């Protein structure tokens, strides 16, 4: 997979999702209600708009398990995490049972059959887990009362897109001040909207191609994922530094080697400015100082580790979500590749902030699921 996203002009190339298989049946849940129904209004003109209900997500669950958990999330949100834990445990057991049968039959005449069964079960479980990951991410958005932007094909009228309400405050409230500072710089870099811009500037109209909008969205997901990774590293190293003022540099090196993450290119259009702010800082001062100065202390290999998507499931999830949001391959082939959309800077900011939050929530979700169901390493 090519993770290179130099200067926001290269879209993440992701492998095709595995084929959809019919999953095993699950427990019965109550009929759907509108308990968690939220609405997102996308205004195209004074007289035309579209409203979205239910999960408000562009990507629908592909498996029976995903649909069942979606029902639990809407009807009994207090039971959602318990249901997820039970289903993940069952998926892990089913996958392990298939592997054990394959290993036991390695020397028998049925070895080929059991290998195929194990492979199909692996694919089936992976699709189900991707559904679980997506619902967990949606749950995190619902906690801050932010609906996901629905399919853009349903929201663009006369080549114009407006997203209301913007939900900027809610999307920014989930971060520390240090992380938020870097996110605001990222917004300025990719759409040119200053953090302290006026209302007039926010609602000024601009034009952007559909492809460019997709690239910015994917890049922002990866940036949010990266920031979550490095902010946790920074917090850990800073706590170790405060506990031991004579912390040796080799300790930091060993911590870097423990990290499983990486990336080929980092989204810092403002990297020169950050470097100038951090020039002359001692490495231990960077550890105990600003997050962006800490990041500038990384070598290229460490930068790569810190932003690499850790699992294949995460790779597939980003691809499927973005294809559903911006249009699948068939839809994209039917429109002009340079289709121009008119929108406001405020709407662009809304999309970028959502994507950054999606990446941050994805990191958390990987960590949560991997403790019960071992994800496939990317």
Q: What would you note in describing this structure?
A:
With 378 residues, the chain is mostly helical. It has one domain (6-370). 56% of the residues lie in helices and 5% in strands. It has helices at 64-75, 80-104, 111-143, 168-172, 177-191, 199-202, 210-243, 249-258, 271-278, 283-287, 291-296, 300-307, 312-326, 329-334, 345-370; strands at residues 40-43, 49-52, 160-161, 205-209, 340-344. A three-stranded mixed sheet has the order 3-5-4. Strand 1 and strand 2 form a beta hairpin. It is globular and about 70 Å long. Residues 1-54 and 249-273 have low confidence and may be disordered.
- How does the major sheet shape up? 3 strands, mixed
SSE string, helix = H, strand = E?
EEHHHEHHHEHHHHHHHHEH
What structural class do the secondary elements suggest? mainly alpha
Distance between the termini: 9 Å
Q: Provide the spatial order of strands within the biggest beta sheet.
A: 3-5-4
Strand proportion, as a percent range, falls in 5-15%
Shape: globular
Determine the fraction of residues in helical runs and give it as a percent range.
Answer: 55-70%
How would you state the average pLDDT, rounded? 77
Q: How large, in whole angstroms, is the Cα Rg?
A: 22 Å
Low-pLDDT runs = 1-54, 249-273
Number of strands: 5
Per DSSP, the total helix count is: 15
Instruction: Say what oligomer this is.
Output: single chain
Domain module tally: 1
Layout of secondary structure:
Layout: E1 40-43, E2 49-52, H1 64-75, H2 80-104, H3 111-143, E3 160-161, H4 168-172, H5 177-191, H6 199-202, E4 205-209, H7 210-243, H8 249-258, H9 271-278, H10 283-287, H11 291-296, H12 300-307, H13 312-326, H14 329-334, E5 340-344, H15 345-370
Parallel strand pairs: 3-5
Antiparallel strand pairs: 1-2, 4-5
Helix pairs in contact: 1-2, 1-3, 2-3, 3-13, 3-15, 5-7, 7-15
